[in-house]
Design brief:
With about 325 residues, the chain is mostly helical. It contains 13 helices and 2 strands. The protein is globular and about 55 Å long.
Length: about 325
Amino acid sequence: MPTNSASIAPAHDSSAGRTGVLLMLLGMLMFALNDVMGKWLVSTYSVGQVVLIRSAAALIVLAPFIWFNGPRKIVAVDRPWTQAARVVLSTAEVFAFYFAVVYLPLADVMTYWLAAPIYVAAISPLVLKEPVGWRRWTAIIIGFIGVVIALEPSSQALTPQAVISVLGSMAFAFMLLLGRTLRGTPDTTLVFWQIVGAGLAGLVSVSFDWTPVTMRDLVLLALLGIVAMLAHVLVNRALKLADAATVAPLQYTLLFWAIIFGWLVFGDVPRLSMLIGSVFIIASGLFIFFREQQLKRQGRLLAPAEAVVTGSGDTTYADGNKD
């Protein structure tokens, strides 16, 4: 009996791990499809209009979870000023993302957003007093070099849209940092206020720019929120079935899908500088992630939530929390 039990357990773990990997890959594909639909729609409708309808659809999907957890728990938040600052940052980065994809290839925008964990690692010593050794500082510098290469700074390439992309990804990074300080807040609460903040900003925006929506586009706009919520479910399930060190690095498949969909749907051909910069950024991000995993196993680093960047303002944490 002991022999059989020992032989069965690894098989079960292996099966769960494989399922987790497949769910993470599917979740990343769903987020990529969400971003493609967003880029398609902001070519016709204002960013505020897209964000408003997307937020309304997401709230409809979230409503059963709010009811199950109790509406009072959603309203009664701890550290309200920190929560408010996080909502402002998340709203700013969502608008920046959709503004950027109007003018830039999807792969370019995704490359800038994938640099957010590098910014988090660089800012953590100042904000969270987390120690960063020379190895991670080296990786951070390499990541910044990748961002500069991807930006291709020149009078022709360094456009306002590219600058807004970088600023949006930095807002995203600060939002992640605040999320680390709010780990005691329930997932549904974080999601709810983030969606509400974006929706209210969209509501104010559409008062200045509203385009009549066709029934087909209304369905697509609603799918933006539904697909993103479904993708969150897939990613969170993957993180429960498999180790974070196995599935979290799969977030970088978003760049692959961004290149493929950008080429097939929008005819975007990736710039060489963007591809080279993305290699630096991905290598840096992976090193920082695995180094932090190693330090936590050694007990030399607190266990903050690892952010899994999923595009267009969506983030899942490797400890099961999502925003």
